[in-house]
Design brief:
Length: 229
């Protein structure tokens, strides 16, 4: 059993070294077996205030851009009214028979309306409305998939929280059993093998609780990534 335990220790140390090297490459910082990692604050890590995914902002920006293009198309169909004029001082003016110095000038109104643009604008608006509808559907589908993922992840979080509460009860009971077994060993009522079995069961219960807490921390991080927080 000691030799088997040594084998497991060697495997665990090797896996730890490999994972540290991979993590060092990912974060561009030195990580080794002596690195101390911070505990995951499970109770306060989840953020459910709002969804802050950049994709939603992109959809809104695309919709706003299409709305602005629709407004611009509407302006193209409007008639254009402009004023013009000119003036001067001198002689002769418009009346060549009058050779006196005087002010003279002219002014007018110009109206332009491209009728053919109405058809082209109508065609452009239809295309823009189709694009806008496609964006709306893409946004709706994205939100549906996002909400579905959030429901699944939230369910996983709640499940792990309940499992951890049961883990705590199991650990408490295992500690009580180990203590009772220790007393029985001291009184010669059981063998050391029986005591060792209960101690191993206690450590396994602690290990299961720690594993579930890590899984809960990962589930909460995934949920926060999904919501963009």
């Amino acid at each position: 059993e000691m030799l088997k335990t040594k084998q497991k220790i060697i495997e665990a140390n090797s896996n730890q070294q490999i994972l540290c090297k991979v993590l060092s490459l990912l974060i561009n910082r030195l990580v080794d077996e002596n690195t101390v990692f911070a505990d995951i604050l499970v109770s306060t890590a989840i953020k459910t205030d709002s969804i802050k995914r950049p994709e939603l902002k992109l959809f809104d920006f695309q919709q706003n851009l299409i709305e602005q293009r629709i407004k611009l198309s509407n302006r193209k169909t409007l008639p254009r009214l402009s004023l013009f004029g000119d003036g001067a001082y001198g002689r002769p003016g418009f009346n060549f028979l009058n050779q006196d110095f005087r002010f003279y000038g002219f002014a007018g109104v110009n109206l332009k309306w491209n009728i053919s643009s109405i058809y082209n604008t109508s065609y452009d608006k239809k295309n823009l409305m189709i694009n806008k509808k496609m964006i709306d559907e893409q946004k709706e589908l994205f939100q549906l998939n996002l909400n579905t993922t959030m429901v699944q992840q939230n369910g996983e979080i709640e499940k792990l929280k309940q499992v951890i509460e049961i883990d705590k009860s199991i650990v408490d009971k295992r500690k009580s059993i180990s203590k009772s077994t220790s007393d029985r060993l001291d009184n010669g009522l059981i063998t050391s093998s029986d005591y060792l079995t209960e101690v191993i069961a206690e450590k396994q219960a602690l290990l299961n609780q720690l594993m579930h807490e890590i899984q809960l921390g990962i589930a909460i991080r995934n949920y926060n990534v999904t919501t963009g927080n």
